[in-house]
Amino acid sequence: MPRTEPAADTELGAPRNGPAPDAEVLSPPSAGTVSGARILRDGLLWSAGIALLLLSVAVAVTIGPARISVPDVWSVVASHLGLGEGRLTPIRDGIIWNLRMPRTLLAAVCGAGLAVCGTVMQSLLRNPLADPFVLGVSSGASTGAVVVVVLGVGGGAVSISGGAFVGALCSFALVLLLSHTLGGSTDRVVLSGVAAMQLFSALTSFVVMTAADAEQTRGVLFWLLGSLSGVGWGDVWTCSAVLAVTLLICLGHARTLDAFAFGQDAAAALGVHVARTRIVLLCATALLTAALVSSAGAIGFVGLVLPHAARALTGSGHRRLLPVTALAGAVFLVWVDTLARTVLDPQEVPVGVVTSLIGVPVFVLILHRTRRSA
């Protein structure tokens, strides 16, 4: 739901929209004011998150019809990295390295990327309900995928991922054009995203209804709801590279995102180039979302819920918030994907269905706790 951005607050305090800034945001620390206790706490938190992620990946790979143990996983990984010789049969080695490992790692990358995008967009747009798909990127990707699969555009030379990526970029370009024409303010960006989302959703429905057969419709619907089946190492490397670049860009703008907590007028008064920063961060998050959606389809609620959960652990300072959110999103989606592929085995449930079933009650709980603490 879009919200109109209010004028900058005239008194120090929490903004009326978006996540409330913590003490670090209200008074940015100078060099030497960060306590050793806080550094130690952050280090322990990040170390625990990384350890939990590695353990989650190792355990998730073992879950499935074939009997595989965690030492088997480490043995296969070590052998493929040249750190030892594998002791498993070629079939078990292929199950771990070619099937389960890339899928599990892509789940971690998608979870981390969507959570980071949600964090940035909620702060940048000052809207706690913003998520990575608010710019219509998901709808554009869906249209691109449907055009390739159903209409056969590209003559077989363009994959479904390629079509989805092009569609996502077209949708984002439309949002930038509309928001710039309408004045470029925060509320105009959100409204432009809603308009693009509705337009491309309508185009997707029109193409499916008029040109797709039953089998194509079923396949497209499954992909639109989010699916990590059939992914390979190429998807993992591509999405990981885009995630790394985007995360570095966002961390480089961490203090700027803190300033946006008070609104664009206050950020400008603090020396932030509002228009340029907004374009850079919106482009970075849109490209990351496009890459993730083109590989895994539309997976909702990760970018909406995980930033709120991470803020409960770290506060609103983005230098600490972004890494924790990424780790939380990665662990979350690894286990969601594991549940999706095993709960109704041999039938697979779309990942987006599971994230919605889990995300809705969790989000209601977060809203309830926020209301009680307000």
Explain this structure:
This protein has 374 residues and is mainly α. Helices cover 72% and strands 0% of the residues. Helix 4 runs parallel beside helix 9 (233-252) and helix 13 (302-314) crosses helix 15. The protein is globular and about 65 Å long. Mean pLDDT is 82; it is low at 1-16 and 23-34.
In one word, what is the shape? globular
Q: Main sheet, how many strands, which sense, barrel?
A: none
- What share of the residues does DSSP label as strand, in percent? under 5%
How much is the radius of gyration in Å? 21 Å
**Which structural class is indicated by helix and strand composition?**
mainly alpha
Distance between the amino and carboxyl termini: 21 Å
Number of strands: 0
* Count, helices: 15
- H and E string: HHHHHHHHHHHHHHH
The overall pLDDT average reads 82
**Poorly predicted residue ranges:** 1-16, 23-34
**Quaternary structure state of the chains depicted:** single chain
Helix content: over 70%
Task: List the topology elements.
Elements: H1 23-26, H2 36-62, H3 70-80, H4 90-124, H5 137-151, H6 160-181, H7 186-211, H8 214-224, H9 233-252, H10 254-260, H11 264-269, H12 274-296, H13 302-314, H14 318-342, H15 351-373
Helix pairs in contact: 2-3, 2-4, 2-14, 4-9, 4-12, 4-13, 4-14, 5-6, 5-7, 5-8, 5-12, 6-7, 6-12, 9-12, 13-14, 13-15
Q: What is the structure about, briefly put?
A:
Helices cover 72% and strands 0% of the residues.
